Amino acid sequence: MLGQIADKNAFLSGLSAAEYGALRGHLAPLELRVGQCLHYLGDQIEEVVFPSSGLVAMTVPLRDNAGAAAGLIGRDGMVGAIAAIAAAPAACDAVVHISGQASRLSAAAFRDVLDENPSIRRRVARYGYGLIAQLQQTALCHAAHPVESRICRWLLAIQGRCAGDRVPLTQSTLAQMLGVRRTTVTLVAGRLEAAGVLKCHRGYMQIVNQQELERRCCECHAHFNGYMSKLLAPSAETPAAEGARPARPVPERSGRRVI
């Protein structure tokens, strides 16, 4: 059962047999429930969670309301890993918005495994850099793009972390994640439905024209996906030879070598 759950998480399934073996004995199954908070802002991270289905939003809370989602984590990644490595307090809430299954292990065990396995540590570091890129892209998107483009981007991002063409979120939840009014999401969803892009149902939205949804989306979606493809490419994960340093060309100006 645990093996089947872990196999559906992209990070765990991307490990070699030896790397996964180093983690397997520490993993335990976890059910993700809608509304569950895996950790709160300021908490000391006690567990690292690897979703195999469902959706977790990295939410920055505000004093007067629920705040907004800064990033999304699904079967593509892990929750709490970067803070666990640093033994640092959580920088946001981690709220489950779509139920699912996951694997978990203690933060202490995670640190021990990484200390003994540099190859896994490198993979985690690359994932962490991708998470930073997602947060940066989201910040830019919120500041620069109209709400319809942002909603289209969010729908595509959620769909990419779920199976099929259904986005199992209510319009109210989507509005909360985006930090906008529910009526705003309702108006945009109505326009998208009238254009044949999606169908709105009770409790979920169904994407019926993927190409048109991508066309209406801002460039942030393609930009981030392109960056992640480069970051996680197999060739990019190959470390340099132990102890080797790449040669650095010496610049020259006016025919003279610069020392």
Number of separate strands: 12
Integer tally of domains: 2
- Share of residues in helices: 40-55%
CATH architecture of the largest domain: Sandwich
Give the structural class: alpha+beta
How big is the Rg?
21 Å
Distance between the termini: 61 Å
CATH class of the largest domain: Mainly Beta
Report the β-strand fraction as a percent range.
Answer: 15-25%
Strand order of the largest sheet: 2-6-4-5
- In N-to-C order, the SSE pattern is HHHEEEEEHEEHHHEHHEEHHEE
Mean pLDDT score: 88
Summarize the main sheet.
Answer: 4 strands, antiparallel
Q: Ranges with pLDDT <50 over ≥5 residues?
A: 240-259
DSSP helical segment count: 11
Shape: globular
Could you outline the blueprint of secondary structure elements for this entry?
Layout: H1 2-7, H2 10-13, H3 17-24, E1 28-32, E2 37-39, E3 47-51, E4 55-60, E5 68-73, H4 81-86, E6 93-98, E7 100-106, H5 107-116, H6 118-144, H7 147-160, E8 166-167, H8 171-178, H9 182-194, E9 198-201, E10 204-207, H10 210-216, H11 220-231, E11 252-253, E12 256-257
Antiparallel strand pairs: 1-7, 2-6, 3-7, 4-5, 4-6, 8-10, 9-10, 11-12
Helix pairs in contact: 5-6, 6-11, 7-10, 8-9
